[in-house]
């Protein structure tokens, strides 16, 4: 049986809005580098493929009384510096971070992730996102996030520039021949000359091609545009469907789109987002989950829905159905979140019911280690995912429970590796090392010339 | 006697153009994270204040045959990721890196260095440069570097935005009170609303105020504009004068400018750039230096002069004086380098003589440990510097010789600390922890109100 891939998503003190209220986690963990190092080492002990840091380049600047109860985005490390520090105390686990194509320069992003790939000896991954939010837009001279279509157009160009820069040097360019005094072979440096709609870049990256050839590309877009973008360029996709049937439909849709971009289905791994709460019994797990949910302050619940639906819901009573006419005509920020909330409103749920069950399209699985392993096996065997991006509501306890109780069960079933068999993230995931585009061209050129 | 501050400048495999040809250094050291970690640990053993990485966000893309003999800028880590990895294996030494205000967004730079300050527990420093070069400009959509005055205008605005973002949160903003459910005090978050000529930023940094309050600001500008900028904002200045008299003149000029910006002379430390080659005798040191110089290929020497003088010298014979009319009327890239070369041309030196002695305004001190300590003592006692930015032509040997042979001599003389007495870079350098501008305002406001 194919092994499943496993990532862990780290968001500050835990994935739950009220995680910081749990006494198990140090209250200042979100800026405590030792907390992250220990978490990465724990995940590495659990033979995870990927330690992943979500990110938005912004603090929230309004509704501060609500955000002060849900501080997940207010006080965090910049993720690439964080992962560079973590790289020093880990040896195998992949290191992935989000960077938005809307707020960076391609040359800087190319360097950051190439540098991380070198210093981690081949463990870097870049999660390409277009969105973030208007808070981020305002930090970068914009009043609001550009429209969805424009963001994706910019993202396509951005990624193509970054990937071209990653190929600036052929793998064997640095010959370091002291006898001849030649450090590199000038013929193996390829200067990019890009004139696009959003970017003009004439230059070469100032770092050798990386151990993985290129860092792994992650995406999570679920819109039609997002899925085409992922099918064309992503190597890992974070999916967010709650049922096996929906998961399989997404999986087949996404992998089916790859052929038109000349890619094999195996060139992309779909990791289903999976929040879990583990108990010694199903009831204990349910109780733990409900205890966490009860800690969500109504102001926080209401704010999260207002933000993701992109409409102000602050005037509505908590315990009456949300009027249908409060659903906006279109979404700009995130189409899956939007559809998820709109669906619950259409089903007549009250504001409180919606925020108590809203998990941005995911659904927390509560159960014993066996039940959670069963669910994961069902999902992978059912062709709905190649693996999972695990979310733990409280840290480090949630991850520790999983590593100690669920991982051994998955290993027993042959669904997870007993030990790492590779040293790079591509190696763990079974992804090809991409050939350098210029090295290929050089091989092809003489043949074409001969044929003329 | 006042202790001298010591920084070490790391540029790939060593500060000398031919350093990579030395067999002592691994040929691939410039992207070997273990090489940098060992170097930082060595400097920490020598009780250095600062481990500093110079940077330009660009590879060279022309004259590649010459650059292939002088690969210093072609294959290096992005410096903030590098220092984040180094932070994990060091505990006291400061960690500084260059980032150009011409090619980044203030929000991203503010985050990178704030993050580094947190994860190093108060050891981060940002070297603010305006220049880099046209290679860098072309990576960021420009054809060439903007003019000197415009770069400084942008730099002033850039730094003011970054420093304001670093004050987004007051030091005691994150109360993390689980009882009340309040993670932070909203009154202690200050949203920047900046509308400037170059930047528009409405937002707050998404990380707590850093252990140092703000990372340390470094600069190196030697032009009149650059000195005013440094007097207004820098806390460390890298100087590049060769003689004590010139050094003292620069020192007094710079410190004299500070009063008009409301600053005390002690708020800024001048570190004189000091390349050294150490031998058991003066002759041995001289021989080591000359052996290195002889490895500079004429193509490399000619190219370095052409670049820093901003004029093509490729047609000139090596062993005849450079015609005076080859000196351009004005400099844009770097005024000190320009003046240095122009001076040598005016003294009638040949191209070969110039490139063999040109060190970008510095002069390598060759001598025994005692002689080098004498020179350093003379310099500091003569009021020409508060300390030194050491450059070692070959690594790790140059640094190791200095730590083992010169540092003990400086300690014996009471010129260097025997052990660290602080945990932060500000602590080492004796720099004040800057108060948060908003916290001050809050204290002042009631008094002003009462006075009305």
Automatic annotation (TrEMBL), chains A, B:
One of its GO terms (molecular function) is monooxygenase activity. The keyword Flavoprotein applies. Residues 25-384 form the Luciferase-like domain. Pfam families: Bac_luciferase. Keywords: Flavoprotein, FMN, Monooxygenase, Oxidoreductase. It comes from the Bacteria. InterPro entries: Diverse_substr_monoxygenases, Luciferase-like_dom, Luciferase-like_sf, NTA_MOA. NCBIfam families: FMN_nitrolo. Belongs to the NtaA/SnaA/DszA monooxygenase family. This is FMN-dependent oxidoreductase (Nitrilotriacetate monooxygenase family). The lineage of its organism: Bacteria, Pseudomonadati, Pseudomonadota, Alphaproteobacteria, Hyphomicrobiales.
